[in-house]
Design a protein that fits this description.
Elements lengths: L7 E7 L7 H13 L5 E7 L3 H5 L3 E3 L5 H6 L22 H13 L2 E8 L1 H16 L5 E6 L15 H22 L6 E6 L6 H5 L10 E4 L7 H15 L2 E6 L27 H13 L3 E5 L1 H6 L6 H19 L5 E9 L4 E8 L24 H7 L11 E2 L2 E2 L20
Parallel strand pairs: 1-2, 1-4, 4-5, 6-8, 6-9, 7-8
Antiparallel strand pairs: 2-3, 10-11, 12-13
Helix pairs in contact: 1-11, 4-5, 8-9
Length: 422
Amino acid sequence: MAASKGRKNAFYAQSGGVTAVINASACGVIETARAHRDVIANVYAGRNGIIGALTEELIDTGKESAAAIRALRTTPAGAFGSCRYKLKSLDKNRREYERLIEVFRAHDIAWFFYNGGGDSADTCFKVSQLSQALGYPLQAIHVPKTVDNDLPITDCCPGFGSVAKYVAVSALEASFDVRSMARTSTKVFVLEVMGRHAGWIAAAGGLIEEHGIPVVILFPEIEFDEAKFIARVDALVKEHGYCTVVVSEGAHRADGTFLAEQGTRDAFGHAQLGGAAPVVASMIKAALGHKFHWAVADYLQRAARHIASKTDVRQAYELGKRAVELALKGRNAVMPTIERTSDVPYRYRIGVADLADVANVEKFMPRDFISADGFSITEKCRRYLRPLIAGEDYPAYRGGLPVYATLKNVPVAPRLAPFALQ
């Protein structure tokens, strides 16, 4: 749909690893934009994230029914496709940024909503700067998303609460299983979770201690000491007969090497991780002789919409909605945030942060959230986590399975020459 006289189009894209609630943010953006048709003619989505803008593969969300867009709120993953594609710096690859502006100009796009994590915030900020330098009127708003919960300024990030809930529930249920078998079989269960540099997800495993489960947590923020770790596991097994270990994929030794490092790099240049659980389990077997089982939560933790946190779903939608509202108020190069005002009862308000203060900044676990011995969480951390995993927001079920939306994703006719990615 071409923009009518006096109205412009918006562009929305999903970036990086998807979550159980990123589509709820998409729903918030699109439904809010549709409520302002007097200003916003249509929302185009990038097919496979920012790549869709570069290659001019745009999706016309105006071809979707209101019911289909509403169903995004209860659908996991990325409805329009995401990507791990980091734009280089302006001085190293200016052509890609200029291409974005060229595509936005060709399709009369005045608003850019980029739904992602830290790298996406950086891209969004650079696009806003370049559009100003080129004299093209574009408002760039970052919609926060990351299961790692490592964006600064905002109290929490959409996607994290649901992953934390999944990890806590899974660790609790598996621990009940281990407890049942510990006398004659498995005595240690190891669960590996996401979290490259920040241990927020691993911290969620500490919530099950309130259910009487003996837990050892390995955080990226705490250097791994094998002797102390083995001693802690040994003590817990002797006291309880079993224990559960929750290890972050980013757990590392004193020299900085990851327990799970494979020697390869991902699309963003980060060390490719995966495999901390079997490494840790083998250490326990070698030192203590205990039978073990291990599991890697991997995609399961971030895709589990069936057990999403109600708080997380609500906040994901609200931040998508507020992104559009900020754009309509003339804001540029900003990100809507969660500002916690109370733990009990849990209360928060929606704030706003400048992207200049968000881009390329990681938020780590505060030391006072981690126990003195480095293997558990404190009551302060529990107060932080509890409301974020609170509440259930189940999707509809049919035939025993959740009912999830698949959009038509009708393409927008290209207007420019093809563009080759480098």
